[in-house]
Design a protein that fits this description.
It contains six helices and ten strands, in the order E-E-H-E-H-E-H-H-E-E-E-E-E-H-E-H. The chain has about 190 residues and is of the alpha+beta class.
């Protein structure tokens, strides 16, 4: 079964579009702002421009019907890049990042057992190569739809996740956000 379709730059964006090197505004990790009495200045000095490989998470029907002004995007990383981050996190917690642990972890991601990550298959064709990707739901970006569509109109072709894979990704994203503990009892209405 095919995971992707290749679409022209002029094609309207939809859920599951893979946008490589997407320009986004992100929060600086090293923000040294300490004067919270002027929140505008604190926020201005706390953001930076960067480019990130992303996937469109906004529902296709909302985009198609023009119901949203902003597009939600999640970052995705090549597996080898994500592994470097994973190993660094393990070492920081004084753990040994073995090949066996990595393979077990990736299998759990593949099976959907890791609630904050999802995996996308690789692609090799039409002059485009993309390795297996790890989508990370911890960081979410939002861009004005008009900006994103304008920027994409000047880019090359892009990959688009096909059903049922885009719906699978959407469900994984929803599970990440809906994990909440509810009280056991809810009082009856009087």
């Amino acid at each position: 079964m095919l995971w992707y379709d290749l679409v022209d730059a002029s094609t309207s964006i939809t859920q599951g579009d893979i946008i490589m090197e997407c320009p986004v505004v992100a929060w600086r990790e090293d923000s040294a702002a300490t004067d919270y009495s002027i929140p505008e200045e604190t926020l201005k000095t706390s953001v930076e421009y960067t480019s990130v490989d992303t996937v469109v998470m906004t529902q296709a029907c909302d985009l198609e019907q023009g119901k949203v002004q902003y597009v939600i995007l999640c970052p995705h990383y090549a597996m080898n890049v994500y592994r470097e981050q994973w190993e660094a996190a393990k070492r920081q917690r004084a753990q040994n990042p073995t090949d066996k642990a990595w393979n077990t972890y990736m299998e759990d991601v593949r099976q959907g057992k890791i609630w904050d990550l999802s995996m996308l298959d690789d692609y090799n064709g039409d002059g485009i190569q993309m390795s297996i990707r790890i989508v990370d739901f911890h960081e979410v970006f939002s861009l004005p739809r008009s900006f994103l569509e304008g920027w994409l109109s000047h880019q090359d072709k892009r990959l688009r996740l096909l059903p049922p894979y885009r719906e699978h990704l959407s469900q994984a994203f929803a599970r990440f956000f809906m994990r909440v503990g509810l009280p056991i009892d809810i009082s009856r209405f009087k």
